[in-house]
Amino acid sequence: MERVPSQRGKFAIITGANSGIGYETALGLAKKDAMVVLACRDMRKAEGAKSRILETYPKANIKPMKADMASLAGVKQFAKHFQSHFDKLDLLINNAGIMMSPYKLTEDGFENQFATNYMGHFALAGLLLPLLTGTPGSRVVTLSSLSYKWAEIDFDDLHAKKRYSKRKAYGQSKRACLMFAYELQRRLSAAGYGTLSLAAHPGLSKTNLDRYFPALIRPLGALFLQNPEKGALPVLYAALANDLNGGEFIGPDGFQEMRGDPTVVNSDAYSKDRKVAQRLWRATEEMTHTYYLGEETHTWKP
User: Is 292 annotated in the active site?
Assistant: First the structure.
């Protein structure tokens, strides 16, 4: 980050930026003088995050805005709000997430982890696409996880209405995020846009995502998890490094990608399967009523 030039004049959105990886990413961008929107469900926590950033870097340009990524109406409302205030977008960082939560369906009838971690971000990227593609050098960075290996995409039961495993549901949501990042880059390139799409994962990082873990396990995290500041480096690398072309997956360079410095990492063959990615894209378009970078023009259906 010391080698990264000033980002003054750049506009960034980070979902779920009030804590953990999102907060550290916001702080890193703010220190480089980017204008950072903290897109958060809880505005009280967002204002608290803004205050902490300003205490660390008083010159920071921070704007909290309400964004509930588990609600299609909330995502649409945020996108309209942002577009009414800004006419460009350099960075969209799809960070907000929940991990291994109890079974719950959202107001739209979607499994909560799949909706929050993946579907809301798919819709948000589509709604903000005109701003992104109209901004030279723009990027979309989507947060995945090592846990993508826990599950493939269960097209027969995407929302776990037949049987729920919180572990598999989380893994599916993070695999979907990774496949979305890859497919978004393919579609952007095919359409001739210069916007880049990248995926990133923080390795094993200590964040508040472990709040649904058993109480006896949580204290053990301090023994082997890297701190959120270190976990945010792959995200910042994906957002800022000038040696990336789009379609890369960024993670730590240490053993099993659990910790270390950011680098380009690989993923399994299933995550790169174009047919699966296209099927997932079409299914998500239909579920979210958000169509973009395909045969249909970008629309939002009520």
Answer: no
